[in-house]
Design goal:
The protein has 148 residues and is mainly beta. The chain has one domain: Deoxyuridine 5'-Triphosphate Nucleotidohydrolase, Chain A (Distorted Sandwich), CATH 2.70.40.10. Helix content is 5%, strand content 36%. The protein has one helix at residues 68-74, and strands at residues 9-12, 30-33, 38-40, 45-55, 60-65, 76-78, 83-85, 92-99, 105-107, 112-120. The chain has a 4-stranded antiparallel β-sheet. The protein is globular and about 55 Å long. The mean pLDDT is 94.
Length: 148
């Protein structure tokens, strides 16, 4: 038996919509499914409807991530990964898929197109200062460690 630590309200907006589900015990993310059939050509991006809307609790976000199998087998990813659904949004969850592959990719109704995770968010106060504390890295950016 799974002990759920968070309950989230989900509304079906489409008669064929399916609620997000964990595929296996221990999965970190739930799969979300398409409510429409779409063809995505190579290099093309499309907004795909899921037919569901969420009431994400304040202090949380719904994070949308690509499915690794679609990425590996077909070059399908999410343009704005990870995507965020904020706690004050009540509209349909849409997934912006992009085809990085060399062949057209067909999405059928009911296909698993993305995965979602609920994350606790710390709301942060920003304080402007004249100086930041020093570290051994300093302002070293990309490739600055010298480690290969």
């Amino acid at each position: 038996m799974v002990d759920f630590s968070l309950t989230v309200k989900v509304k079906k907006l489409h008669p064929e919509a399916q609620l997000p589900t964990y595929t296996r015990h221990g999965d970190a993310a739930m799969d979300v499914r398409s409510v429409e059939a779409v063809l995505i050509n190579p290099g093309e991006r499309r907004l795909i409807g899921t037919g569901v809307a969420f009431e994400v609790p304040f202090g949380y976000e719904l994070q949308v991530r690509p499915r690794s199998g679609l990425a590996l087998k077909h070059g399908i990813s999410i343009v704005n990964t990870p995507g965020t659904l904020d706690s004050n949004y009540r509209g349909e969850l849409g997934i912006i898929l992009i085809n990085h592959g060399s062949e057209p990719f067909s999405v059928a109704k009911g296909d698993r197109i993305a995965q979602v995770v609920f994350n606790k968010i710390e709301h942060t106060h920003i304080e402007e200062v004249d100086e930041l504390s020093e570290t051994n890295r300093g302002e070293g950016g990309f490739g600055s460690s010298g480690i290969k």
